[in-house]
Amino acid sequence: MLPQMAHACRLALALGLDASASVDAAEHDLMRAGLARALVSPPVIAAFLDGGGPVALSVYEWSGRRQQQVLVAWQLIDNPATLSGIATEILNAPRGDDEFPTALGYALGFGATQLAASPDCDFKTLDISGDGENNEGFKPEHAFNHFPFEGVTVNGLAIGGAAPDIIGYYQREIMRGPAAFVEYAQDYADFEAAMLRKLERELRPMIVGGL
C-alpha cells in the first residue's frame, strides 16, 4: 500500500498512546475505545475525507525505553471503511508491556522515526497522549535535538489525574512546531471527547491548504 500513499497525501499523522505503568487496565480500555469511537465519529470522518487529499495514519503505544508497539501501520485514509477497519485493529490488538515507566523522550524518538518512514505527505504531525511526566531515559528535549523533527508538528493530549499540572508540562516539553497545541482530558473517561476535539483540530486546518 505504501507506493499508493505518496499520491496527493496532505498529512502523515502518527498517534502515540501512553501504555506505561501509570495507565491501569480500565484506563487503557477507555483510551483504546475512546480513540476507536473518535475515529469513526461523523465529524472526524468528514475531517479526514473532506480536506483536499488523503491522510496517512499510524498508531502506536509507548511506555519504557524500548517498549513501543505499533498498533496500526501506515494506512491511507480514503474512505470511511478504512477508518472503521483501523478502529477494529485498535480494539483487538493485545496490550504490550504494562509495567514500565514513562519514557516520553523515547516515545517522541520512536514517533519521529515512524514519521521518517511515512509516505511523502505535505505535512507531518506527531500526536502524543499521556498522563505523566518523563521518568525514564533521556528527556523530551534530547529527543527533539537528536531525532528527525524538522518539518514535524508535535501536538499533545494531556490526561489529568496522575500528575499535577500535566497540561503545563506538555505545553513546555512536548508541544513543538507550527500551529502546535495541547488538548486536555480531565481523566480517561474524558479521553474520547478530547481525542475527537484534537483530531478535528489537527485535520481541519489542512482543508485550507488543500483548497
From the structure above, extract its key features.
211 residues, 9 helices, 6 strands, disordered C terminus
Word description of this protein:
By secondary structure, this protein is of the alpha/beta class. It has one domain: 3-Layer(aba) Sandwich (Rossmann fold), CATH 3.40.50. 41% of the residues lie in helices and 22% in strands. It has a 6-stranded mixed sheet with strand order 3-2-1-4-5-6, with helices on both faces. Strand 4 (123-130), helix 6 (140-146) and strand 5 form a beta-alpha-beta unit. Helix 2 runs antiparallel to helix 4, helix 3 packs parallel to helix 8 (191-203) and helix 5 (104-116) runs parallel beside helix 6 (140-146). The longest helix is centred in the N-terminal third of the chain and has 15 residues, at 25-39. The two termini are 26 Å apart.
Task: Give a concise summary.
With 211 residues, this protein is of the alpha/beta class.
